[in-house]
């Protein structure tokens, strides 16, 4: 066989997963397959018909249609010659439905194998990458003699993989290679601490700055250099050569980049210093207008920088960083970063926000939220009447979904300097970076298509220097410093294992016993609401670990914004506009992983999980109205919690100079802790989602300044972002979080720049409960690849909930 014949021989490129098919007409699925066949999988031909793809039975009849997502991906490569597609279905689907042959079968899961010539392999890989489709290993064995070669499979120099042994591993990609990719990307991020910063020029800081800049000075240089035209052209030209980008069309000038410092390194102060430093250039920008080709004036220019944040709490944090606590230029205290009047700002948020563009032109900074920005883009469009000198997105990972309201609103703003601030530029998939690049529009990869083609495609295809385009892009436009840059004493980690009392174990086991009965029922029903119901069952077990034998608040499951706050974390239980906008495109809360879609009520056995009554005649996990009325809302409830008692004892045993922050998801836990600490004579103050701004500021000030108040109780969502609490040297995490990043944010309130003492982190875990499963899941996820091409948020969230309960079930 000559080389041309070998190139034209048919091979299998791999499979596309997470597809679905629906039976056409009213003929049952079992009619198209002999259910007596013992094969684990059944294969059907796939044919394209008027823009859709259908499954063909053995006699050539069209009996099912593929979902629009997978059909669109297949259409993307349909023009490549000699391709054919094959749908793979698990045969047990036919067995299950044989007895209901006369009923209409709903949709069923499939994977799609793709076959074609070896010659076209690279073309298929490139086209699929542009469609954000990534090939996995086939589910079932291929026909004898068919070669399996995945052109998107990540390969490294010197490695020669026999891909046939990977057939049957399904959509779980080869972890060794995924781990290598994750490790390489992690190393790139770690290498960006001093990337492309020319420090040989003298930097004369603006006289309005009070604080002495430390590592923020290199960040300031990074920003100013990338907003300078000559430097920007130099970087763009170098990057074009590095990624082999060629165009005859002059690239539009666009400046900016990504500040990806980890939490606690002063991203806010870095950007505020850059705003102050560039004020003369910004003033010049606003004083001169350019005319368009039609000789009409462009939009009104403003010297202001528009800063967009994720919540009202973070907006207030920016305001506190800007405003001075002094009355004169000569008496600025050490707590202020800027002299009075150095920076002027206005809040564009709420019903009283200014509607006159001239008001926004008169200040240095305009502060708003993603929700307000999205609302303004659909109504008055006040912000869109201006050509901004600079736009800054804080917590920029909230625009990682390019279909979200906040992304579309931010991308529509007029400006030539764009910046993203986030400690997690790549949260868990490399596609997260695409939306940031799409917003930034930095040359030469200023479009989504160009970024995917020149950066992500090489990563997915592998080969020599496959990570170099990503490295070159990030080295050009990203600055990231880790906690290694801080000269802090290493934090002490203490995992506190708690044993239930016999009464607490009885309460917990009642929930566990009923959960075991329900798991198989919910999974076998293929109920679209199963994940929500399973989450609610797990939630009761998690809360019981904290509450012990104390009665818990009632909690019903409903749609986002209609839930009792105990059902979720501070992120997803808030009912404000900012939360609605940020979570609108999420299937699961990114912090606590609670399902956010509408759910039907739980089965009766979940709501009343045990028929046995406790000693007082009440359900173990339910509070009736009579009990609440009898005790009153602020009177003690009978009960005991081994975990919360342990937390109180840890605080009591600490020295008199110790300060403690205690984090929990749930206000009911904070209520009990407040009472236990008070009974022990330990003064505390508190900040949670219900705390007003005035009270919040007062309590934080008390915790910082009053030596008698040693404890700050905080809900983890409220206190995890935008606060500097280096006065504390102890951080208590009362329960493990689904998302380890939330724990890291909470810890960073104390373990950050300015901390001079050794910090101890306490993590409380009840033995032989779902909490240990969560810890094990966290450890397993850290061992696996951190950065992948997976985009299945809903599927991964469902799997996490189910896998935890599956461990409990066993």
UniProtKB/TrEMBL annotation:
SMART domains: DEXDc, HELICc. One of its GO terms (biological process) is DNA repair. GO terms for molecular function: ATP binding; ATP-dependent activity, acting on DNA; hydrolase activity. Keywords: ATP-binding, Hydrolase, Nucleotide-binding. GO terms for cellular component: nucleus. Residues 248-443 form the Helicase ATP-binding domain. Residues 639-795 form the Helicase C-terminal domain. Gene3D superfamilies: P-loop containing nucleotide triphosphate hydrolases, Tandem AAA-ATPase domain. Pfam families: Helicase_C, SNF2-rel_dom. This is Helicase C-terminal domain-containing protein.
